[in-house]
Specification:
The complex is a heterodimer of chains A (154) and B (104). Chain A has 154 residues and is α/β, with parallel strands linked by helices. Chain A contains five helices and five strands. In chain A, strands 1, 2, 3, 4 and 5 form a five-stranded mixed β-sheet that branches. Classes of the chains: A alpha/beta (154), B alpha/beta (104).
Amino acid sequence: MKIEEVLNENSIHLDKDLTSKKEVFDYLCSSLYQNGMISDKNAFQEKVYDREALSVTGLIDGVAIPHGVSDAVNQPSVAFVRTKKEIEWESIDGKKIKYIFLLAIPNNTKDDVHIKMLSELARSLMDQNVISKLEYVETADELLNLLKKGGSQS
Amino acid sequence: MKIVAVTACTVGVAHTYIAKDRLVQAAEKRGHQISVETQGTIGCESILTEDEIKEADIVIFAADVAVTNEERFKDKPIVRVKSEVAIKQPEKLLEKIEAKLKEK
């Protein structure tokens, strides 16, 4: 999986001092905006909150995959942050969250190839082979390599 | 037990496919046959065949939106749950279904 086509190394942030869901959303939406993945930070962020209200985006063992569908999204993309401390966040296993992958999805997109990559990424984040290593990646490159391998296993 | 299922979450990018994986894992663990159709934003994949539907003992809709072409299942018993249920506790869901089918 050519994960770098949806996850830019500039959208990968490690060990940030963010302590709430709101701070994470703010931070990651800014990141996507700065990297040109979205054209309107506030409009997109609102959609992220809309989706958040529908059902849990926290998965297992500290991983969360919030996402937003919006006209303000230029291309299917992801931003990632590993926080310094665990954050309160509803999750399917009840655990707190430390690894957040924010997915940005364009409205009415025909870009199936990249949407599929987002789906494959989400699926690989349920795999212990991937999850267990998220704490230890030290660079953006290492994260990309981990996810590349994870994708091919699913 | 022969199971067919359709997963369809609201956005149709992540939970739809995770729900499928969780259902397949749980079903195989419990010794059941399962086929799962996903209805996502890119469309329907692994579309259930007429035969698969005919032979199924139970149909599961793990969906937060309407299932496309629901008429295919009109004569079958359908269990409807949110996609979150299939992701959170797929084994419990199957346990419940097994118990209900035994009662019949």
